[in-house]
Amino acid sequence: MITPKFTAEQVAETMRLVRDSAHIVVFTHMSPDGDAMGSSLGISHWIRTVYPGKDVTVVVPNAYPEFFRWMPGAADVVQHDTDKDRAEQIVAAADLIICTDFGEAKRVGFMAPLLEAATCPKIMIDHHLNPSGFAQVAMSRPEASSASELVLRLLLQAGECERIGLDTATCLYTGMMTDTGSFSYNSNDPELYELVGELLRRGVDKDACYDRVFNIWSLDRMRLMGYCLLRKLQVMADGKTALIYLTRKELYRFNFSSGDAEGLVNLPLQMANIRYSCFMREDKDKVKISFRSQGDRPVNEYAHAVFHGGGHANAAGGEFYGPVTEAVKLFVNTYADYFRA
Ligand code: 5GP
Ligand code: MN
After folding, report:
1. What is the mean pLDDT of residues 223-251?
2. Each residue of 51-76: pLDDT tens digit?
3. What is the pTM of this model?
């Protein structure tokens, strides 16, 4: 038995809005990850299965990593930064916007004004803390391990199990897998495995999902990881915090492409005594920062307080406007005030 996570009104209102809308747009956050792709594509496939005549489009702000291109429907996703006019036309024609894997308009970056200006009803399905009130139907459940899990729970609660097709199930599984590090963190809820069981019964090949997302490294990406571990990994004075940072020059040297840094922040946590990890990457106009931690050691408060970010207790991120060396100085001078034993 799967515990209902949403009120009967939320489920009924979602089903009614989907039924009564002809042009549905699904939004997800900047630099979409596996859960962003999985939850947005997953719900869009379900809508197409149930209502083949409806016009459903997933719109993302910018590129998603290459290793999600195999996901059913990924090729049809409209990317705002490279296809602005089309993205804006689609949003202008929308009579329903569904937002997955983000709870604040600012998480869609430069698409935020578009989202906020849209007058049609909005549904939000998300698992981040501190949701803002941009959606009429706001289904925020921070205890959930992924937005994909929440989409699945919503469909099951709505009695839609039999209409979850293989494409929907494959996308939702991929989101659940990636947001839990292949079920290695945030994954102690026994119901998670009942949900996975349901997806496997829908025909998902979970081993193939893993293979397509994780066993696809380029030689450049392999070398970049080796370089990070050999040359860039530092352990802070506290003995339990690790830092890796990469300059633009270093990224260029390894022909960096979107997704190549994915997972590097997790590597130092494999050391016996490391409890916190920070990874910084110098982008064109800012430094992108990731934090990870183990157990009851939240990093989202630090990400929010010092790097204008946020996220989950054990996986958070933020930004810094300036050279990466300055971001490193700020980190070195502040981490000890927030990171506990
Ligand atoms: P990642 O390190 O994988 O980029 O992000 C981990 C988590 O941190 C994301 O799921 C997201 O919740 C959060 N996060 C990352 N970057 C930011 C940011 O700039 N602002 C906020 N509010 N959250 C972020
Ligand atoms: Mn997520």
Report:
1. 98
2. 999 999 999 999 999 999 999 999 99
3. 0.92
Q: Which ligand is nearest to the CA of 128?
A: 1
Ligand nearest the Cα of residue 186 is: 2
Level-2 CATH architecture, domain 8-214: Alpha-Beta Complex (3.90)
Q: 79, 111 in Cβ contact below 8 A?
A: no
Nearest alpha-carbon partner for 146 in 197, 205, 192 = 192
pLDDT at 341 over 80: no
- Residues with Cβ within 8 Å of 89's Cβ and at least 6 positions away in sequence, in order, are none
Instruction: Render pLDDT for 72-118 as a digit per residue (tens, 0 to 9).
Output: 999 999 999 999 999 999 999 999 999 999 999 999 999 999 999 99
Please tell me the distance from the alpha carbon of residue 173 to that of residue 14, in angstroms, as a whole number: 22
The CATH 3.90.1640.10 domain(s) of the chain lie at: 8-214
Q: Where in the chain is the domain with CATH 3.10.310.30?
A: 219-337
Q: Atom 12 of ligand 1 has which residue's CA nearest to it?
A: 311
**Residue 335 has what pLDDT?**
98
The CB of 128 under 6 Å from ligand 1? The reply is yes
With CA atoms as reference, report the closest residue to 132 among 150, 147, 115. 115
Using alpha carbons, select from 2, 20, 25 the residue that is nearest to residue 160: 2
Considering the segment(s) 219-337 as one domain, its CATH architecture is: Roll (3.10)
Does ligand 1 lie within 6 Å of residue 261's CB atom?
A: no
